[in-house]
């Protein structure tokens, strides 16, 4: 093998190579003031790009002095109508733009595409959901770089939005802050006399299918589950990502738990403009904050809060973008040592708006820093450490029961388990809170795609008198395509009260899913993973104590079955999903599109 004579810096630069942009060196002063428009000045100063300046005057720049001196900040809201998670983000963006102008900067609003997971759940639209994460990242990277923005403030709402925004930050690496759109208020069904939320709709549907409630009951749940704007209100994927990203120091304190409709959310938008100026002045860039240490905080918080399995997929993608070596084994390492403390939905009692009333995430982080579970010394977008950000937060009241004390956890170790075995040689992700037990052994019942299982459920055919493992395959990143979430199946089983059933898939489950569920099985069936040759009646063992998932089939028999197996045709050959299928990697590496 030839000797590699490249210098270390050259090898590092070849790890991920992005387009380089001319910029004024940090620390340069003009007329005695620190230059903050280090990137935009390329087109706003001098006479090299008169056409660009003409366009910017037309877009709203008021004077030659503003053109030449003021930093330009992109305000990227993941806004669109028709989804409560995102429908209010344009207004938040307007507040940010006003704040930027008051603080001597120029704000340019733009938005990205998005997909509503609740609207697309268990229909063909869900196949577009995961790829939206990467399109969001592409959109923000594209506009930030092409328009020569000096900084960015991103405003996401739904769950793929958050990692997409952070991935974009790691790519363009210009001073950036994320403002989470905030959680929705909890709903209430007068007819059933109980609190309801988006997850209740799917579980109530299961209860209807198995004759436990009436259509009028379901109608009432649907009508009152989502009372206004905001992200889904339990510790589902959106709030999982938001709380973790706050623990990484990429948002202002409290962003993840400030409700969407609260006046405090508007105040946060104004405070973010002050913070982005600090980032510009101190040259605080995303890659200064997206580190192994901050990811450690993110994983710890996810375990403490009972967060979504989707966090594994998204953290891996975010770390890949930032050239960090996070692996699925890191999640198991953290899960082994960190307890599950938060009594939040989907498997618990409370909503994130309830958490906000006892101090929100700053109080939780203050508690975790004091307990030496979270690193309070990491830098943040405020220019202060995470510990300093949380110092003024109220301490958690010992009388509250949303966050359990360390002496009385819901589970002594994390609920997210990384499983391996002859069904998942490359890994799988389980969400096991302990309420459903820690070991499940049952006969496999295999479905080639989620629609086949849904049809079986709708016909009332799933009434097992023995432990059964329902397997849904060909729903991975390539096979799905798009690795669709399968909340409907898990919620129907919960609503129907079927407790002797486990679910496994090479697709994903929603952050709102709970029960004995295993997803992200690698290799996926479409590429010839062992899941492709699992048969009805095979005995499947899921063990959250030994972290194993296996079938009672010998290696020789698996090899024999795979020899006669033939991959099904890809479901799409043109369009955006076809591009996705040909680029996407496996779930154990974040299902990213640029792992070349």
From TrEMBL:
Pathway: Amino-acid biosynthesis; L-valine biosynthesis; L-valine from pyruvate: step 3/4; Amino-acid biosynthesis; L-isoleucine biosynthesis; L-isoleucine from 2-oxobutanoate: step 3/4
Domain Dihydroxy-acid/6-phosphogluconate dehydratase N-terminal: 70-389
Keyword Electron transport belongs to the record: no
GO molecular function: 2 iron, 2 sulfur cluster binding; dihydroxy-acid dehydratase activity; metal ion binding
Entry keyword set: 2Fe-2S, Amino-acid biosynthesis, Branched-chain amino acid biosynthesis, Iron, Iron-sulfur, Lyase, Magnesium, Metal-binding
GO cellular component: a single term: mitochondrion
Database matches in InterPro entries: DHAD_IlvD/Edd (IPR050165), Dihydro-acid_dehy_C (IPR042096), DihydroxyA_deHydtase (IPR004404), DiOHA_6PGluconate_deHydtase_CS (IPR020558), ILV_EDD_C (IPR056740), ILV_EDD_N (IPR000581), IlvD/EDD_N (IPR037237)
UniProt key word tRNA processing: no
Catalytic reaction equation(s): (2R)-2,3-dihydroxy-3-methylbutanoate = 3-methyl-2-oxobutanoate + H2O; (2R,3R)-2,3-dihydroxy-3-methylpentanoate = (S)-3-methyl-2-oxopentanoate + H2O
Entry cofactors: Mg(2+); [2Fe-2S] cluster
PROSITE patterns in UniProt: ILVD_EDD_1 (PS00886), ILVD_EDD_2 (PS00887)
EC number in record: 4.2.1.9
Broad enzyme group: lyase
Domain (Dihydroxy-acid/6-phosphogluconate dehydratase C-terminal): residue spans on this chain: 401-591
Gene Ontology process terms (BP): isoleucine biosynthetic process; L-valine biosynthetic process
Family note: Belongs to the IlvD/Edd family.
Name of this protein: dihydroxy-acid dehydratase
Protein's organism: Choiromyces venosus 120613-1
Classification of source organism: Eukaryota, Fungi, Dikarya, Ascomycota, Pezizomycotina
């Amino acid at each position: 093998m030839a000797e590699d004579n490249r210098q270390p810096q050259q090898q590092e630069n070849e790890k991920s190579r992005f387009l380089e942009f001319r910029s004024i060196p940090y620390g340069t002063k003009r007329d005695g003031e620190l230059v903050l428009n280090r990137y935009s000045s390329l087109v706003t100063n001098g006479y090299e790009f008169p056409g660009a300046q003409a366009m910017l005057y037309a877009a709203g720049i008021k004077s030659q002095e503003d053109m030449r001196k003021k930093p330009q900040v992109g305000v990227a809201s993941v806004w669109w109508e028709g989804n409560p998670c995102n429908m209010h983000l344009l207004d938040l963006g307007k507040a940010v733009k006003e704040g930027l102008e008051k603080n001597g900067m120029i704000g340019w609003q733009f938005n990205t595409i998005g997909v509503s997971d609740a609207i697309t759940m268990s229909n063909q639209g869900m196949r577009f959901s995961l790829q939206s994460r990467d399109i969001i990242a592409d959109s923000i990277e594209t506009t930030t770089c092409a328009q020569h923005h000096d900084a960015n403030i991103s405003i996401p709402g739904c769950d793929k939005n958050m990692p997409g925004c952070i991935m974009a930050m790691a790519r363009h690496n210009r001073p950036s802050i994320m403002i989470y759109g905030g959680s929705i208020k909890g709903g209430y069904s007068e007819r059933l006399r109980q609190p309801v939320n988006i997850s209740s709709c799917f579980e109530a549907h299961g209860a209807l299918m198995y004759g436990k409630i009436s259509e009028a009951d379901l109608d009432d749940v649907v009508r009152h589950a989502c009372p206004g704007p905001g992200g889904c209100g339990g510790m589902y994927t959106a709030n999982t990502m938001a709380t973790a990203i706050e623990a990484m120091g990429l948002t202002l304190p409290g962003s993840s738990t400030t409700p969407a409709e609260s006046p405090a959310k508007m105040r946060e938008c104004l405070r973010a403009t002050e913070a982005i100026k600090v980032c510009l002045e101190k040259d605080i860039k995303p890659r200064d904050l997206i580190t192994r240490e901050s990811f450690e905080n993110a994983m710890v918080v996810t375990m403490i809060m009972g967060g979504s399995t989707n966090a594994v997929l998204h953290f891996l993608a975010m770390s890949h973008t930032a050239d960090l070596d996070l692996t699925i084994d890191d999640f198991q390492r953290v899960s082994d040592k960190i307890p599950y403390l938060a009594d939040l939905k989907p498997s618990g009692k409370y909503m994130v708006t309830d958490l906000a009333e006892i101090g929100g995430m700053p109080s939780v982080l203050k508690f975790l820093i004091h307990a030496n579970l979270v690193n309070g010394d990491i830098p943040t977008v405020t220019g202060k450490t995470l510990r300093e950000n949380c110092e003024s937060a109220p301490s958690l009241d010992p009388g509250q029961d949303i966050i359990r004390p360390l002496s009385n956890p819901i589970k002594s170790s994390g609920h997210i388990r990384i499983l391996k075995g002859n069904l998942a040689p490359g890994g799988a992700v389980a969400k096991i809170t302990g309420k459903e037990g820690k070991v499940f052994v049952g006969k496999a019942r295999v479905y080639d795609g989620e629609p086949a299982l849904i049809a079986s459920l709708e016909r009332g055919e799933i009434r097992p008198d023995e432990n059964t493992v329902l397997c849904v395959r060909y729903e991975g990143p390539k096979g799905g395509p798009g690795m669709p979430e399968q909340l409907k199946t898990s919620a129907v089983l919960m609503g129907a009260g079927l407790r002797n059933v486990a679910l496994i898939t090479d697709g994903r489950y929603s952050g709102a899913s709970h029960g004995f569920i295993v997803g992200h099985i690698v290799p996926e069936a479409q590429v010839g993973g062992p899941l492709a040759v699992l048969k009805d009646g095979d005995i499947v063992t899921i063990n959250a104590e030994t972290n194993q998932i296996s079938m009672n089939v010998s290696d020789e028999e698996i090899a024999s079955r795979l020899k006669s197996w033939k991959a099904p045709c890809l479901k799409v050959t043109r369009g955006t999903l076809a591009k996705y299928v040909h680029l996407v990697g496996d779930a154990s590496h974040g299902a990213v599109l640029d792992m070349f």
